[in-house]
Amino acid sequence: MATRTHQPSIPLTEIEQSAFCRTEDQLPAKSLAEEQAVNVRWQDIPAQYLHCSVEELDQRIGIAKKTLGKSVTILGHHYQREEIIKYADFQGDSFLLSQEAASLAEAECIVFCGVHFMAETACILSSSNQRVILPNITAGCSMADMAPMEDVDDAWEDLESVLGNRGGITPITYMNSIAGIKALCGRNNGAVCTSSNADKVMEWGFQQSGRVLFLPDQHLGRNTGLKMGIPLDKMVVWDPFKAMGGNTTEQLANAKLVLWKGHCSVHTRFSAGQIQAARERYPDIKVIAHPECPMETVDAADFVGSTEFIRSMINDAPAGSQWAVGTEVSLVNRLAINNPDKLIFCLDPVTCPCSTMYRIHPAYLLWVLEGLVGGKVINEITVPEQTQVEARVALDRMLALK
Ligand code: SF4
């Protein structure tokens, strides 16, 4: 068994997740000082940005962006707030945006309004002379933070000791993971997947070894396994807080799918009970959910798919249709604004944005843009060369499966 050099712990991003949950629908930005008053631990920023009004921030972001012109491209994930997404040159989910980053020949700098693992992926896929900036360096992802490198290295060592180190198990990691895990997959004949191709990549993984370690989201892994016909008694959960992940050697040898015990703090809020309540209130409602939701929620939904799938399904739906949506509320609110002829609402009656996406406050965007205007690169994301090479292998294996 691997010798532990540290104690696993609950990530701060998970602990702070509920800081911005509220009962009203809208989430208008306030000054950074007002937002930080709820006691979140975000990156320090020069005092001059703390008390700027939202209007002043908006005006100055516009000026800085115009000054920088094509040398800077702003990428905005769908889960970003309205005050940020309005400045995005491109919007998309994590994978689309990373692909976009790879095709931006003109941009010297890519300002990634998303979370840390996305900026890392952009760094791996963009060219070596481009610089990738994350406006708030503490914008992690609670799911990615549940699989720190030391824990995954220990788990991999344990799994190889039990299952053999030649093809006993294939590591597959969801895009929502740190670059080091993507690299581990690259050098151990594994691959990366997204929520839209997880089944295809998992099927490929089973062809390699007959057994898959799926990281870091147990729910996406379980939902995908079930979709592929793998019974629950052939799945085990790897709990990094326990020796051998909480499993016996026999359980591991018998498993087809080993699921890392991670989850998305946003998507695990959606429940079968919320779906039932929505159906009772609106008998014609269609329920659409993301596969990071728990199995019972996915079972009860009418449609299940990635962020891009949810967007196109609702955008293409006929006028008058009704949708209860199990995904991040900023995206759901935007879909409702853009489709006024349809009834669209978030399944969760409490408005809980992804608190790590929410860390990209307009003050941080302004700070990094004005830094660039003054010739200073703030919050550049870099990935060590060897990690980039190995992670790229795992990403390329996924891309080859199209
Ligand atoms: S929605 Fe979930 S998986 Fe996506 S960035 Fe937020 S915490 Fe991470």
Features:
402 residues; binds iron/sulfur cluster; 5-stranded mixed sheet; globular
Description:
The mean pLDDT is 92. This protein has 19 helices and 14 strands. With 402 residues, it is of the alpha/beta class. It has helices at 12-15, 32-36, 47-50, 54-68, 82-85, 94-102, 116-125, 142-145, 149-163, 179-187, 198-209, 218-227, 249-254, 272-281, 295-300, 307-315, 329-338, 362-373, 385-400; strands at residues 72-77, 90-92, 109-113, 131-133, 170-174, 191-193, 212-215, 235-238, 257-260, 286-289, 303-304, 322-326, 343-346, 380-381.
Summarize the structure.
The protein has helices spanning 12-15, 32-36, 47-50, 54-68, 82-85, 94-102, 116-125, 142-145, 149-163, 179-187, 198-209, 218-227, 249-254, 272-281, 295-300, 307-315, 329-338, 362-373, 385-400; strands spanning 72-77, 90-92, 109-113, 131-133, 170-174, 191-193, 212-215, 235-238, 257-260, 286-289, 303-304, 322-326, 343-346, 380-381. It has 402 residues and is an alpha/beta fold. Strand 3, helix 7 (116-125) and strand 4 form a beta-alpha-beta unit.
Helices and strands, with pairings:
Layout: H1 12-15, H2 32-36, H3 47-50, H4 54-68, E1 72-77, H5 82-85, E2 90-92, H6 94-102, E3 109-113, H7 116-125, E4 131-133, H8 142-145, H9 149-163, E5 170-174, H10 179-187, E6 191-193, H11 198-209, E7 212-215, H12 218-227, E8 235-238, H13 249-254, E9 257-260, H14 272-281, E10 286-289, H15 295-300, E11 303-304, H16 307-315, E12 322-326, H17 329-338, E13 343-346, H18 362-373, E14 380-381, H19 385-400
Parallel strand pairs: 1-2, 1-3, 3-4, 5-6, 5-7, 7-9, 8-9, 10-11, 10-12, 12-13
Antiparallel strand pairs: 4-14
Helix pairs in contact: 4-18, 6-7, 10-19
The protein binds iron/sulfur cluster.
Iron/sulfur cluster binds next to helix 8.
